[in-house]
Amino acid sequence: MANNLIITIGRQYGSGGREIGRKLALRLGIPFYDRELISRAAKKSGFSEDLFEQLDKRATNSLLYSLTMFGSTGLNGMSLTDQLFLAQANIIREIADSGSAVLVGRCADHVLREYENRFDFFITGSVDDRLQRIQTHDDYELSGKSPRAALEKMDKQRSTYYNYYTGKVWGKSDHYDLCINAGRLGVENSIEVILAYVNALKK
């Protein structure tokens, strides 16, 4: 496990973080995990993928939300949201134990905080750069919303999820090895910066 190279990527919506993670994994020749985490956690836990999707997008400390969406408590007195998070966290640890990997989102940096040879990056960009990317790339689903509304909603969901389950502040620079403005650097140059950083420090 000590020799496994683990790279986690947090990202603002529309910043290109998922593309950067996928291409970075290809360059390194190691597995890439994003939505695959949901599928694996669902299969192992017995919960549906739909529930994990809702957790991924809507986790919050709102009592009203917990009562209306998942009920106040589940097994062992734990809320269903917490059970889903723990199931997902267990899969993330299993992946990190089994080999090198690039993992996007889902608080992987926090879940794996005790792991050696782990590097955490946060991908960001200006609102204008991210709006342009949302409108010109097929990776983003607007679901009838304006690009700006979609951006604001997804950033809020991601920050709420991260802040609630980590007790930290999403995107705050001191939680990561590097925060990278991919809107200015572009995807390929962002990958080169990450590789240079990892190669300079990995054990």
Structure description:
The protein is an alpha/beta fold. The chain has a single domain, classed as Rossmann fold, CATH 3.40.50.300. The protein has ten helices and five strands. The chain has a five-stranded parallel beta sheet, sandwiched between helices. About 7% of the residues have low confidence.
Helix and strand arrangement:
Blueprint: E1 6-11, H1 17-28, E2 32-33, H2 36-45, H3 49-58, H4 63-70, H5 80-98, E3 101-104, H6 108-111, E4 118-124, H7 127-136, H8 147-166, E5 178-181, H9 182-185, H10 187-201
Parallel strand pairs: 1-3, 1-4, 2-3, 4-5
InterPro entries: P-loop_NTPase
Organism: Butyricicoccus pullicaecorum
Pfam families: Cytidylate_kin2
Offer a concise description of the structure.
This protein has ten helices and five strands. It is an alpha/beta fold and 203 residues long. The two termini are 12 Å apart.
Which regions have little confidence, pLDDT < 50, spanning 5+ residues? 59-73
Q: What would CATH call the architecture?
A: 3-Layer(aba) Sandwich
- Say which CATH homologous superfamily is assigned: P-loop containing nucleotide triphosphate hydrolases
What is the strand content?
A: 5-15%
How helical, in percent, are the residues? 55-70%
N→C terminal distance: 12 Å
Order of helices and strands: EHEHHHHEHEHHEHH
- Summarize the biggest pleated sheet: 5 strands, parallel
Number of β-strand runs: 5
Total count of domains:
1
Strand line-up across the major sheet: 2-3-1-4-5
